[in-house]
Amino acid sequence: MSPPVAPLGWSRWLVPPAALSVHLSIGQAYAWSVFKPPLESALGLSGTQSALPFQLAIVMLGLSAAFGGTLVERNGPRWAMTVALICFSSGFLISALGAATEQYWLIVLGYGFVGGIGLGIGYISPVSTLIKWFPDRPGMATGIAIMGFGGGALIASPWSAQMLESFGSDHSGIALAFLVHGLSYAVFMTLGVLLVRVPRPAGPGAQGDPGAAAGVQVSARTAVRTPQFWCLWVVLCMNVTAGIGILEKAAPMITDFFADTSTPVSVTAAAGFVALLSAANMAGRIGWSSTSDLIGRKNIYRVYLGVGALMYALIALVGDSSKPVFILSALVILSFYGGGFATIPAYLKDLFGTYQVGAIHGRLLTAWSTAGVLGPLIVNWIADRQEEAGRHGSSLYTASMVIMIGLLVVGFVANELVRPVHARHHHVPAPKEAADAAADAETGSPTGSATDVAGARPQQPESA
Amino acid sequence: MSQEPGPSSPNPPDRRPLTAFAWLWVGAPLAYGLYELVRKATQLFTG
Fold it and tell me: Is B13 in contact with A9 (Cβ distance < 8 A)?
């Protein structure tokens, strides 16, 4: 499938909604917990068993993003979005069959394995295209899309809950809910497939993005061999670990923290706190990522990691004596968590160019998978040990806070070590690719991946 | 996929209605999600 090239007059503002239609859909993954209690009672599963489809989906997200990135770059965003649509929707349809026949393995296979591939390919599908359309504001562009991944759970969580309430929580009700999810997401994601376009290569005399043509261009294969890639891997891993540390245990954490005070936090208020954290996570994705276009990527990560460490220190120092300080600090940390996710594609673009930025981003997402294990492990393990030692209240989490500060400092140092990529790693287009790109620039009809080669200059979008 | 005018077309069609539709398509469910979020978040101060 050739990448779909934008016709003359195509607005670049059609690309973010295309990306959002995919990210808002696959963001449903974070709302999997809605299905857990009904599945447990309908199919007689344990909590660990009912978490399996989600866990496998996240593993498949990391693997398919890492290994499918090059294919996404080669075949273009429409191909990637189509694959994401087919996998994500079929995942639900297979799960519907599994629920209807009470075969749980089909739900694990459908939602976890097949759907998980859709998550990974869908997550990276619009990144490279958005950066090419918005060379002046890559942080804002990728921030919009990646904000959608956070927004997906906000939509799916109440929607799925209402559906289960209407259809019933027995196996046939769950099957019907899965079926409706699969069909609805297929329709919703179709908009992205139909709308997404790559910028036209500039013809003679057209204005292009000088950075894309003349700047650094590094292939994904080469990028993973550079210290810059691994520095960013550490940066992302540490930032995500610090955020997940709070996010994963937010409700019990705020309840435990103020349990010994005169104003304990109720279960309902704790649920409100979790919702507020989700809002901060989402706002950080678009807000901080857009800010990075103004102050630079290295500086914004200095803020995420440096101020993030200070916020953790503040929580540890103030303890249970101030609820507003705890809440505000947690909100800031979560906004940095979201910002870290959303800004990384633009940071990669700054360092490695647009040539294979989607594929490089896919490989970097293994840091997310690592952090997804590391963050909850640290906080839960330490909280359990502290509880065994007879501690309670805010002191349950003091050691975790200190470890999170340490991790953020490691991330801060890794960010400081990031330097421009050495010229020996720069990609030089093969003679055939360069010739294709030159020919496409003449005719305005690119073939294959010619729009991606360093020599092809993307068209300056008509509307800014 | 609908036919689109070629690169040499002198008057490209007005994309504003399509742009508005596309943003509405993704904006409406997002607004619903945000509304539900705000409802839940207020429980922190009232619950």
Answer: yes
